[in-house]
Amino acid sequence: MAGLRWRASTALTLLAVFSLCLGLQQAPTLSAKDNAKEGNAASTAEDGSDQPSNSDDSRRANAKSSKKTTKKVVEKKKAKKGQQETDDSSDSSSATQSGHTPVAGGTSSGASGQPGGKTTSRKVNETSSRKTAPNSRAAGGTAAKPAGTGQTDAVKAAGGGRAQQPVRGQLTAKHPLVKKVIDIQNRISPDLLKQKGIVATSTGLDEDGNVVIRVQTTGADSPKIPKQAEGVAVVEVLTGPIQTYWQATSTFNQQAHQPRPVPIGTSAFNDVLLTGGCASGTLGCRLKDKHGNVFGLSNNHVFAGINGIEGGVVIGTPVVQPSPGDLNPPCQSPLPANVIGSLVKFKPYDLSLTGNNRIDAAIISTDVSLISNSTPPPPVAYGTPRSTTWIGPFLGLNVQKLGRTSGYTTGVVTGLNKIEIVGSPAGITFWSGQIEFSGTNGNASLGAPGDSGSLIVTNDLLGDRFPVALLYAGGGGITDGNPIQEVLDFFDMTIDGDDSPIIPSPGKEGRASAGSQ
């Protein structure tokens, strides 16, 4: 009996153990299914995948993979957004600077390793081209403004026009520091110029390259010149008197008759003999109006005898080449064969004591068979000037010119906003807004008496030969010129010169183009 109980108890015990083991086996299977469902749900929520995970390891692997995928997507979006912001910034910079400046700029490429780098390179190049396109103006027309004040100009448009100063930071009259000094110069100049012995003031550089106020003196009368004005240094420059640069008979360098068409930069003057002798000047360049008519340009005191006062010059008076002072023998009645045109218009001098002159200019009607649009080519001179003017001269700008007396010379801009007292055969005259030059490469001066009317052009910019000024006066190693664009604006004409496009070397920035400032 006891044995049966024991057997029954053992059987029940075994059955219970079997049931427990069976339950334990079924529980993990259900848990795994539930985990799989949860893993599938998590995976679907994470990356949109509907592939099930069959284990914890699989779920973790899928989740990790999903996070990596999501991170890559986010990074791509950020990179794309950053690239778009860079392109937008580049376009915005171009749009902000768009306005009026000189030649197609250098190339630029996208950042290495960035998506869309190739597109970035194209956009940057396109922006550079837009930033540097110059103002251009057809003869007699108004200036277009396809580009801004960036570092370069686009390809020059035919027909000439204004060019703009290209590189930021150069010391033009618009540079904040230069503008500040000019404002001070303007305030102190009236009192300075009242003193005997002071003939001019300008904003320029001292020997150390600092922007200062330059005061030119004759060396006589001991004027009182301050060491500084409103915190800006004032520097005295001994030049002697400043005179118009026509040439009297006693000191002229004889110039030969030139074959027609006459090269610009050579001897020319009106054919009326001046009282007490005869004189010489320079034919500056050839102009054209909007109808295609051509004209010769020089100074009022060369072609028009200072408002006709000297010699009784009137509209229609012939102008000859060479000048009467350069004939052989000199000062004889000019031969009809020497005539290259006749006076048609000039800017009158204001000869009053309160006068304010800015340009000394006159034009003659002529023909392409009589006057060329070029100097002799290098190495004699610089060749053909650009039709486009450089209207933003800066301190240190290198220039060149061909004139009747000193020939081909080079120089540099040493003063802006020059205010000066100039002697002439008609008396003392007062001038403002002039550009001051000094000689370089061993030249004592850029110009000399007899060079009046010479065209001054750039000498260190891509393409060179952009007109800067019309030479009219000087003294003591200093040469002065009228801003050339003011001259052209008065006559409503353009320079009849070189209209060829300016194409910079790949990767190299151009500096100027049709219509540079």
Helices, strands, pairings?
Layout (H helix, E strand, L loop, with lengths): L1 H46 L8 H42 L19 H16 L43 H18 L4 E8 L5 E7 L10 E2 L2 E7 L4 E2 L2 E2 L18 E4 L8 E4 L2 E4 L5 E5 L1 H4 L14 E3 L18 E8 L15 E4 L32 E6 L3 E18 L2 E13 L15 E4 L8 E9 L2 E6 H8 L2 E2 L22
Parallel strand pairs: 2-4
Antiparallel strand pairs: 1-2, 1-15, 3-4, 5-18, 6-8, 7-8, 7-11, 9-10, 9-20, 10-13, 11-12, 12-13, 14-15, 14-17, 15-16, 16-19, 17-18, 18-19
Helix pairs in contact: 1-2, 2-3
Textual characterization of the structure:
Helix content is 26%, strand content 23%. With 517 residues, it is an alpha+beta fold. It has a domain at 156-167 and 242-517: Thrombin, subunit H, CATH 2.40.10.10. The strands form two sheets. A nine-stranded antiparallel sheet has the order 6-8-7-11-12-13-10-9-20. Strand 17 (455-458) and strand 18 (467-475) form a beta hairpin. Helix 1 runs parallel beside helix 2.
Overview in brief:
This protein has 517 residues and is α+β, with helices and mostly antiparallel strands.
Entry keywords:
517 residues, alpha+beta, Thrombin, subunit H, elongated, disordered C terminus
Beta-strand residue fraction: 15-25%
Task: Let me know the number of strands.
Answer: 20
Strand order of the largest sheet: 6-8-7-11-12-13-10-9-20
Report the CATH C-level class of one domain: Mainly Beta
Shape-level CATH architecture of one domain: Beta Barrel
The CATH superfamily of one domain is identified as: Trypsin-like serine proteases
- What is the C-alpha radius of gyration, as a whole number of Å? 40 Å
Question: What is the arithmetic mean of pLDDT?
Answer: 74
